[in-house]
Amino acid sequence: MAAALDRIRVGSAPDSWGVWFPDDPHQVPWERFLDEVAEAGYSWIEMGPYGYLPTDPARLTDEVDRRGLKVSAGTVFCGLHRGPAAWDAVREQVGRVASLTQAMGARHLVVIPSFWRDDKTAEILEPPELTREQWAHLTEGMARLGREVRDTYGLDIVVHPHADTHLDTEEHVERFLDATDPDLVSLCLDTGHYAYCGGDSVRLIETYGERIGYLHLKQVDPAVLADVREQGLPFGPAVRRGVMCEPPGGVPALEPVLAAAQRLGVDLFAIVEQDMYPCAPDRPLPIAVRTRRFLRSCGA
């Protein structure tokens, strides 16, 4: 029997139900997501894209409470590398999400850098590499955001490296961590995105453990990933090809990742995210049930 991972709090997210947008005809209704995530055996959820779940705190509290659920975090995308000109738009977006996150009793705000390549159309929106000035804007902007979110809402930001953003590879992630204040900026390590971009999650946890504030659990199919890399596909089409797969069938192996996280000796959320947009409405629940069973077999 696996050792108990008593510092790891497992949850899931709308992403595992094929939800990428606040409103989309390809997505399951939010009521069905809440019903099924509870049925699958999870007690913690992320809120997903702002506007997918109800944004009235009283109503959302009622909906999650009666299903025995609790909220772990909210999520925002932002382009802080664009410098001070982007700050007002970022602050407005963050304010909406952080306010609801705080009202739901959560303590984390997952911050994802904006895409340099459109995940639907594959249009190149910006160069994939930042200039030195843009790196400074990104790191200084995240520190400012971390301070404001903490002081205003009592939340910790956890920055999420993500495919087709400027924060993706081991080199970029380490550069970002080395340039940011650990008191203000922690990392949301997404095991699938990090593997997608060539990173080693266990090594990152062992090297920068004090910076790991949150986990997303995800695996990639190595065979599909090899094709994606060979063809230079954007992330959206790669997901439609099944690059993110059901554990334990992909990489990285989650048992050593969870064990390394447990050794940090701090409480961490580990939120399951299996990108499946778009997907048939009956597909997510059986996968979620099997994934929860697998994580229990790992001790989580």
Automatic annotation (TrEMBL):
Gene3D superfamilies in UniProt: Divalent-metal-dependent TIM barrel enzymes (3.20.20.150)
Pfam families in alphabetical order: AP_endonuc_2
Highest taxon, organism lineage: Bacteria
Stretches of the chain forming a coiled coil according to its record: none
Annotated Xylose isomerase-like TIM barrel domain residues: 34-297
Protein name: Xylose isomerase-like TIM barrel domain-containing protein
